[in-house]
Design a protein that fits this description.
- The radius of gyration is 19 Å and the shape is globular.
- Strands 1-2-3-4-7-8-9-11 form an eight-stranded parallel β-barrel, surrounded by nine helices.
- 43% of the residues lie in helices and 19% in strands.
- The model has no long low-confidence stretch (mean pLDDT 96).
- By secondary structure, the protein is of the alpha/beta class.
- α3 (70-83) packs across α5.
- It has a single domain (2-210, 269-312), classed as TIM Barrel, CATH 3.20.20.
Length: 317
């Protein structure tokens, strides 16, 4: 079970590089950078983090596939893989529908677009010459002049049974956005199917505190989207899924929804409490099929939160 930490998309720019350095110093295995609409570019963040560290793995989680031509996606990823061998993972997805529509990059079949893009990128990174006349991707004998000696893993940031099955068939790993419960991890692993060596990674809102109530208060703001349609796959396997959607429907807004969310739901949807309690929860996630958990720091001081998250390490104590 590997442990990662996610670099918040809105972290003050002065804290970005110190965050990466501190994550490495504290012993995390992976730093995940985010590419959300209107915030910071994923490849630029990954390159900067790799350049100022020496050990920690850096993952881009995720780059929306339809936003770039696959050849140029592969060129960016190959450059990082060449410069920092074995330290970069490329995450690709079809993107958040609302954002992609805003950017004019949401096609009639996002799943087809993602599949064509992601498989073309992976083939290019493995040194193949690619010809593809698909619905969205059109390549004519394209290859990388110097494919990386160590091709980076390509992970799919997806949800839903069809996209998870595609990830298991064509890619190296799957990245699940928060929240990831054991039930969701188990369902995702089942939908990925038989895929030897395929890694399952999950983001988790995390707050370490001896007082569980304080920890819950810190993660609640991050759970505002749990009742939205985009999050249906995350909660569908849970026993309280119908109650959760009913509560969201009767609340005036997402803030009221998170305030009224029962403590036991928060405990299920995030990692909260003492290091011992969180380690126990991570063991449940590992038993459900997760290979890596990436802590998502919360609160006003996300850079300072790194030190409290590090108290969870090592997982076996």
């Amino acid at each position: 079970m590997h442990t990662g930490v996610t670099l918040p998309r809105d972290l003050p720019v002065a804290d970005v590089l110190p965050f990466a350095r501190r994550a490495e110093e504290l012993g995390f295995d992976t730093l995940w950078v985010i590419e959300d609409l209107g915030f910071r570019g994923g490849f630029a963040q990954a390159a900067a983090a790799l350049a100022i560290t020496s050990r920690i793995h850096v993952g881009l989680g995720i780059a929306p596939a339809a936003a770039r031509n696959p050849v140029f996606t592969a060129m960016e990823a190959a450059t990082l893989a060449d410069l920092f061998p074995g330290r970069f993972t490329l995450g690709l997805g079809h993107g958040v529908p609302g954002w992609m529509r805003q950017a004019g990059a949401w096609g009639a079949s996002p799943l087809t677009s993602f599949t064509e893009h992601a498989t073309a990128v992976r083939r290019l990174l493995h040194g193949e010459t690619v010809t593809l006349d698909g619905r969205y991707v059109h390549l004519d004998g394209v290859r990388l002049e110097s494919p990386p000696a160590v091709p980076p893993a390509v992970a799919a940031g997806v949800r839903g049974p069809k996209s998870l099955a595609i990830s298991g068939e064509h890619l190296d790993a799957t990245l699940l956005a928060e929240p990831v419960t054991p039930e969701y991890a188990r369902a995702a692993r089942s939908q990925i199917g038989e895929a030897p060596g395929h890694r399952l990674i999950g983001y988790e809102l995390t707050a370490v505190d001896a007082d569980p109530a304080r920890a819950r208060d810190l993660v609640r703001p991050g759970l505002v989207w749990v009742g939205a349609p985009d999050a249906a796959a995350h909660v569908a396997p849970s026993a309280y899924a119908e109650e959760l959607h009913a509560l969201r429907a009767e609340c005036a807004d997402a803030e009221e929804f998170t305030r009224r969310m029962p403590d036991e739901w928060v405990d299920d949807l995030a990692l909260v409490g003492t290091p011992e309690r969180i380690r126990s929860r991570i063991a449940e996630l590992e038993a459900a099929g997760l290979d890596e958990v990436s802590f998502f720091p919360v609160g006003e001081d996300r850079l300072g939160a790194l030190d409290s998250l590090a108290t969870i390490l090592p997982l076996q104590q």
